[in-house]
């Protein structure tokens, strides 16, 4: 059954106590068995059939999936934003390297404050980048500016707004407040970083604040993982490309390509448009076979369901390996994972809402892991429900499009989008994120706390 260079059989042990939501599809018999298990039944999102994988179990499966790492390369610091760090970074020196002034003012020795009655003789002027050479004399102060190295002997800085300067007997003097504590307005050497501090770990994605830390220790070349080559392929005879195809009866413009390309752009990948493939097995097999030779990852939308015009599973089985994940979630339900040689393939649903949510929940963590990044669960914000669900089907995880609005007392409230169709791009535009309802939640009353996954936490670029 397996064809193609590098193709090999893969088989998973069944789960104890029932059907496994993963199908071993490597032979004609496997395909026949899968067809029987997916026979039509009740007209429902969770019709009888295979045991469906829970959301958490699916995440665990994806996290355990073995993935190769991209090679290591070096990039200039200016080009490192968003890249995946390939090695640890340790501070080679203290930051700052010396005690410095935190404000514009006057530096002095705190032990001289009471004996001098708050009066000091001015004997130096110190600006940032121009450290003084001489130690501060007893009962003397130095005019100092923010970031300047403290003179030897000084340990405290008085803000210039709190001081009075003048000339007495031809000598420049300054009066500082007597209430200052020792060490006020002084930044200690190593206050930000001490030599030997581990700043970053392999797998960290570099943020603007991380680049600032790398700059502060003088690094100008950063070891990172090479960007993944990700191809996006849309499938379906009905699809048209805006600006390239004229409208026709039954045609739909390919919104998924631009949706998924925008989401993928927030990952450490270089995106290639693989175009649209019609609903023909031979065409899809040719497209995926050629694309696999030039990409690390391929993400498809559509063609992954049970219909006669859905060929993704059969094509992946012929070219390499395939896993079908039937999920107990809404929207979404099905995710197809494949491998052609060393190229991973992720098959997403064709409806835009299901495609986006499946990408954010499942494809994005897999892409980040494939890129060498450390993946952590997104933060969930507990908010008040601004809606009522008196009764809902249990046994599946639901992700409802919602936006956050302030309630009467200022508490954030999640309002659900009025309609729930999985083809409504308008619902994605109106939402700030997703209200997540666990499998055992049978109802939701207004004001009840519900977990909210913001699109920002899920990596959606602003």
List keywords for this structure.
single chain, 462 residues, Molybdenum Cofactor Biosythetic Enzyme, Chain A, Molybdopterin biosynthesis moea protein, domain 2, Molybdopterin biosynthesis moeA protein, domain 3, six-stranded mixed sheet, metal ion binding, molybdopterin molybdotransferase activity, magnesium
Describe the structure.
The model is unreliable at 1-22 and 36-48 (pLDDT under 50). Strands 7-4-6-5-9-8 form a 6-stranded mixed sheet, with no helix packed on it. Strands 16-13-17-21-20-18 form a 6-stranded mixed sheet, with helices on both faces. A 5-stranded mixed beta barrel has the order 22-24-23-25-26. The two termini are 45 Å apart. It is an alpha/beta fold. The protein has 4 domains: 28-70 and 227-370, Molybdenum Cofactor Biosythetic Enzyme, Chain A (3-Layer(aba) Sandwich), CATH 3.40.980.10; 72-94 and 191-225, Molybdopterin biosynthesis moea protein, domain 2, CATH 3.90.105; 100-187, Molybdopterin biosynthesis moea protein, domain 3 (Molybdopterin biosynthesis moeA protein, domain 3); 381-454, MoeA, C-terminal, domain IV (Beta-clip, Beta Barrel). Helix content is 19%, strand content 28%. The protein has helices spanning 28-37, 55-64, 113-116, 208-216, 255-264, 281-292, 312-319, 352-370, 425-430, and strands at 72-76, 89-90, 100-101, 105-108, 119-126, 140-144, 156-159, 164-168, 171-175, 186-187, 198-200, 221-225, 228-235, 239-240, 252-253, 269-277, 297-301, 321-326, 329-330, 334-340, 343-348, 381-385, 397-406, 412-416, 433-437, 449-454. It is built from 9 helices and 26 strands.
């Amino acid at each position: 059954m397996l064809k193609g260079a590098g193709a090999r059989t893969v088989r998973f042990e069944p789960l104890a106590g029932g059907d496994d939501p993963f199908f071993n599809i490597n032979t004609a018999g496997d395909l026949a068995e899968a067809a029987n298990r997916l026979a039509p039944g009740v007209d429902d999102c969770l019709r009888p059939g295979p045991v469906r994988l829970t959301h958490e179990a699916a995440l665990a499966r994806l996290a355990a999936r073995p993935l190769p790492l991209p090679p290591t390369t070096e990039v200039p610091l200016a080009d490192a934003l968003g890249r995946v760090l390939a090695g640890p970074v340790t501070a080679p020196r203290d930051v700052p390297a010396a005690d410095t002034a935190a404000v514009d003012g006057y530096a002095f020795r705190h032990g001289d404050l009471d004996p001098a009655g708050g009066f000091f003789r001015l004997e130096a002027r110190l600006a940032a980048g121009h450290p003084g050479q001489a130690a501060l004399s007893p009962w003397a102060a130095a005019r100092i500016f923010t970031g300047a190295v403290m003179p030897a002997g000084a340990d405290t800085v008085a803000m210039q707004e709190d001081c009075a300067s003048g000339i007495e007997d031809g000598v420049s003097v300054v009066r500082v407040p007597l209430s200052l504590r020792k060490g006020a307005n002084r930044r200690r050497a190593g206050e930000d970083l001490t030599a030997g501090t581990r700043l970053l770990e392999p797998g960290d994605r570099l943020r603007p604040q991380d680049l600032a830390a790398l700059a502060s220790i003088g690094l100008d070349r950063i070891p990172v993982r090479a960007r993944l080559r990700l191809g996006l392929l849309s499938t379906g005879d009905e699809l048209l490309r805006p600006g390239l195809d004229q409208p026709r009866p039954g045609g739909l413009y390919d919104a998924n390509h631009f949706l998924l390309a925008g989401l993928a752009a927030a990952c450490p990948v270089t995106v290639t448009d693989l175009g649209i493939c019609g609903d023909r097995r031979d065409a899809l097999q040719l497209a995926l076979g050629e694309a696999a030779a030039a990409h690390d990852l391929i993400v498809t939308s559509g063609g992954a369901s049970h219909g006669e015009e859905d060929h993704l599973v059969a094509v992946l089985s012929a070219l390499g390996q395939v896993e079908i994940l039937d999920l107990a979630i809404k929207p979404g339900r099905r995710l197809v994972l494949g491998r052609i040689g060393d190229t991973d393939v992720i098959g997403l649903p064709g409806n835009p809402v299901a495609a986006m949510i499946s990408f954010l929940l499942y494809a994005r963590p897999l892409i980040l892991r494939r890129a060498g990044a450390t993946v952590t669960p997104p933060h969930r914000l507990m908010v008040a429900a601004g809606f009522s669900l008196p009764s809902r089907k249990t046994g599946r995880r639901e992700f409802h499009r919602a936006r956050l609005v302030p309630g009467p007392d200022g508490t954030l409230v999640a309002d659900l989008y009025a309609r729930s169709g999985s083809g409504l791009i308008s619902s994605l535009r109106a939402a700030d994120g997703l209200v997540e309802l666990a499998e055992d939640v049978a109802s939701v009353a207004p004001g009840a706390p519900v977990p909210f996954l913001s699109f920002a936490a899920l990596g959606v670029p602003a």
